[in-house]
Sequence to fold (185 residues):
Amino acid sequence: MRKLLAFMNISLDGYYVDAHGDMSWAHQQDAEWNDFANENSKSGGQLLFGRVTYEMMASWWPSPMAHEMMPTVAEGMNSMPKMVFSRTLEEATWRNTELIKGDLVSEVRRLKEADGPGMATLGSGSIVTQLAEAGLIDEFQIVICPVALGGGKSLFGGLSSRLSLKRTSSRAFENGNVVINYVAA
Fold:
């Protein structure tokens, strides 16, 4: 069975975007963090996005600036197969992207049961919540960023039942980020 990883940046107060939908606060660049991002981007697999995250990623990673600032990550993001789940998006134009309009949970369950590489969802908070509630996420890689926002969209906001997790590893970075890996308990 294929594994699904959820990679999320959150603030110290638990938000993945601020009250205005901005997440620029989550992108602190330094050599150590960039090395970590480069290694993550080399893991291959298939990326899953909701519409909002897809549109943000599709506007950035193919750009000349992304290739200049983070060439390894840009190459990985652009070359990996991607799926965007949306009922409103008319077409997906980013290279190697398939638009899925069907039921998220059913489609991901089908994908997990098929042969293929591992999968990851980056951001896409509402997708993560739905998939976590359905028990379809195998690992959570949560980046806690050293900023408090005071409001925004809460990671796992809207869960109808408790989600218990077990920490498998953690790593602190000089820029203040802390990455914690969890699996379902």
